[in-house]
Structures are given as structure tokens and as C-alpha cells.
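Can't attach files on this board, so I'm pasting raw text. These are the components:
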Amino acid sequence: MIQMPSLKEARLRKQKDVMVQTKQYIQDKSLSQLGKGKTYFIKTYGCQMNEHDSENIKALLEEMSFQETTDMEKADFILLNTCAIRENAHNKVFGFLGRVKNMKEKNPHVIAGICGCMAQEEVVVEEILQKYKWVDIVFGTHNIHHLPKLLHQIITQQEKEIEVYSKEGDIIENIPAKRDSKYKAWVNIMYGCDKFCTYCIVPYTRGKQRSRKKEDILKEVKQLIKEGYKEVTLLGQNVNAYGKDFNQNYKMENLLEDVALTGIDRIRFVTSHPWDFTDEMIHVIQKYQNIMPYIHLPIQSGSNTVLKRMGRRYTKEQYLTLFYKLKKNIPNCSITTDIIVGFPNETEEEFKETLDIVKECQFDSAFTFIFSKREGTPAARMEDSISIEEKNRRLQELNQLVNYYAKAANEKYLHKIVPVLIEGYSDKDKNKLVGYTDTMKLVNIKGDPSAIGNIVKVEITDVKTWSLDGKIVS
Ligand code: SF4
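---
Top answer:
C-alpha cells for the assembled complex are below.
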């Protein structure tokens, strides 16, 4: 079966179809033994939405008796859950596909698949059909719950399955999740995005903004509490716009408050668009101790002319007003950001304005990127006279500044005692534990492993640019 994505369809936003269709995912019991004796390997690229999608996919596969392996060489089913946000993510996927091809040549029974945002791109799927004919399965972000059916077709009929829908999207409840952590969990509160920033592919790959019903979100959070989870991160491309697609007066501030009232220890939310961040939200964050004082607030550029070309809907002055409001009203709040350099025709002057805003805000940290042209977006058609060498130079200059302020922000923690949720052992040093402060600082810790899964007090003994060292004091 071949159902191709379509950029034209992905662009549509039919106002009459705003109603969210909520379907219930129901496990197909007849497929429960399909993967018996077989293993799967998933490689995930990109954002937290993708990570959580992979948690859903793992649970779907395990419902079919597949078992996870972290060794790709041993897998019967290899799936790449892809990201379309930047070209280098694309290149990494196509590079990795070379390794998968080698495996298929050695073991033709191996099933190779691609899903996620790249699978939603018409040009990508065309390329796969032409140059990567050995890929067995491609499915998109709208039909993860069809995976059991698609795999059944491949295994029993030896058919290639390409099923990608370019549509505004539904909300499918009840898809199970095999969560990576036992202590902190992603909870989707909305899908898609209607902002259409001119550089961004997400509104085309993830569909229209559609919020989950509060009852479903709260039910999920309460269940997580019962299972012993300490932290939830409310997920969406633009969580502050939660509820704007409903015809009711229930918005992000109301949801945040209701989630806070469940009593879960820690609540975070990503990602925030400055345009939708309201005073009411700030008031709720201030009111509840279990909403963490950490805000990721992408600015993207410090230049009003670039922000306008990006279609970001705010000026740097409006961003700064919000920034200072957050700093004033949420004590000890850490604020991080995203910045793009080298947007088409970004002048030196415009770039300097970005450096100026970084100097002014002194962000706790920033994810910095060179502009990446995404096929089908308005920015991909903009003229651009800035060379890649110059963009690289700007990125380096920006990174130096960002690193300086990240270290300076961390230095304020030296000798302080801070609450840390201990998540497990450090990847780099198995003699150390690792966790995050309420303000989202990574801490490597000396202490008793019995603290894993608990929020404990940690004294900070050393600081680095991207992490802290500490010891447990209670
Ligand atoms: S808000 Fe802008 S950058 Fe963020 S997902 Fe939506 S379109 Fe993309």
C-alpha cells in the first residue's frame, strides 16, 4: 500500500474542521503474538515530542510481543524516528540508512522503517522510493497507532507499506507508552502548531494545533502519580496556546493550575512561544510550588526586522517586557532560549542586535543554530546573500557569549543547597548519580544510590559551563 504525503494538503487549515476528533486507540488482540521471538531497535532524532512518540511506538511493539534491543545488529525490526527541523538532522538519517542497508544485505528478513517528521515530507518519501527501495515501512506522525496493522501486512504479505497522511490531525487517546524514566514523564497536552513561523516545517509535519481534553490530561497525570512518578513535562509545540482551539474558556493557566492541584511534585512545560505567555500563567506559576521555576522561552533573534521576517509576532521590546516580568515574579527563575543565526540576509547589524539581547538577558543557556532551509517553507524561498562561512563565524561568536553567561549563571549556585530529583547513574561516571535541580540544572552527585527516584537536597561543590557537581546533604 502506498499513501504518499502531500505538501499541498499539509498546508491546508480548513476552519470548518476545527473540531477535534478524539478516537480511542484499541489494541488489536489478534496481533499480540506477531512479534514473538523478534526484537526491535529504535533510533530517535529530534525533540521531546519525538522522544515521547518513540515511547508510544515501543509500547505498541511490546503489545505485539516484540522485545527491545539496544544492539541494532541483533534487531529484526529497525525503525528511525526522524526529525525534519534542520538539514543536518536529515543528513544524519540518510547517513544512518547506509548502515541499515548493510544489515539488510546480510539479513534480508530484517524490516527497516522510517517514521516521524521526515516521513511527513513529500520530497523525502519520493527520495526513499527512488533511492532507498529496500526500506519496508514508512509512516508519519498522524498514524503511529496504525503501526501494528502495517507490520502485520509486511510480515504476512511481504508488502512494502508507505502510509503517510497529510492532514490537520486527530487526537488518538489511549496509545500506551513504555516510558524511558520511572520518575519523570512526558505528557502531551497538544499537537501541531498554527503559528507558521516562516522558517519552520512543524506546522506541515505535525498538522493543525489541537489540544487534548483536560480530563484526559489530568487522568494521565493522576495515573503517573499512582505509578510513583515525581515529575511531568507538559508537551506541545506551543503549549502556551493550549485551549485556544476549544470554544471554551479553559486555557494554559487553567490547565497548569489543575495539574498543580493533582499534587505531583514537579511540573514543567515546553515549548513556550512568547506571543501566548499570559500574566495569568505567570500568576499560576508563582502560586504553586510544584510548578518549576524554569522557562524555555525561544527568542530566535534580537532584531525586530529579522523577527518580522521570521513571522514571530513579537518585537524584542515585547520579549524583554515578558522576560523581566518572569524574572520579577518568579523568584530564582532560570530562563533558556533558542537562537537562529544567519537567517536569510541577516545583516551584521541585525546579528549584533542578537548579541546585545543575549548580553541583556544573560540566559541560563541557549540552543543556537544556523538557519536551515526547509523545503516548502516561506523562508526557503527568501534570497540569502550571507555565506555559510560568515554564518559559522556568527554562530561561534554567539556561542562564546552564550557559554560565558551559562557558566556565570551556574556560578551563582556554588555552595548553595538545592533540590534535585535523582534520576539514576551518570552516563560518564557510574560512581556518580545524576539529576536536575528545580531550575533544570544538570547535577552530577556523590551520594547513596538509595536516593534514586527521590528529590533530595544537594550542596553544589563545583560548577562547569553545562553542569554542576554536588553532594547529597539530606
Ligand atoms: S511556534 Fe513557530 S517555531 Fe514553534 S513549532 Fe510553531 S511554527 Fe515552528
